[in-house]
Amino acid sequence: MTTAHETYSISDLASEFDITTRTIRFYEDRGMLSPLRDGQKRIYSPADRTTLKLILRGKRIGLSLEESFEIIQLYHQSPDSRKQLNKVLQAIEKQKEIITEKKSAIQSMEKELQEVEGKIRSALNELDKTP
């Protein structure tokens, strides 16, 4: 269980989320994570962990880093989550449209592949019949 006083190292987070420490540093460089420092050691808070979890969730559903970060910032700016939820809903609708377009393109590609495959198989059958 996570408590308010718990902290995490970069290795802890990398291991938990099955990502590289380089990925975490990338998000830091983008200003998305802000760990405390103890010399060279990074100390991540539960809020940093949650932010990382949300970034990765956004990535899995196809959001850009900018979209994910904007949504996360909305959450931190206001305890009223209506604005954040509407933003997430818009992003989801956009992703669903993109997926629908991709599915249509894949179905067209599959149909074309089947047609070409059929023609090639017919041509090979004709060649096999030739003495």
Describe the protein.
This protein is mainly α. The chain is 71% helix and 5% strand. The chain is built from five helices and two strands; from the N terminus they run ααββααα. It has helices spanning 10-17, 21-29, 46-60, 65-77, 82-129; strands at 36-38, 41-43. The chain has a two-stranded antiparallel ribbon. A hairpin with a 2-residue loop joins β1 and β2 (41-43). The protein is elongated, with a radius of gyration of 24 Å. 11% of the residues are buried. The model has no long low-confidence stretch (mean pLDDT 90).
Give the uncertain stretches in residue-range form: none
| Structure annotation, total helices | 5
Specify the helix fraction band: over 70%
The succession of helices and strands, N to C, reads HHEEHHH
Determine the strand fraction and express it as a percent band.
under 5%
Tell me the overall shape.
Answer: elongated
- Main sheet makeup: 2 strands, antiparallel
Strand order of the largest sheet: 1-2
Radius of gyration: 24 Å
Distance between the termini: 76 Å
Q: What structural class is derived from the secondary structure elements?
A: mainly alpha
Overall pLDDT metric: 90
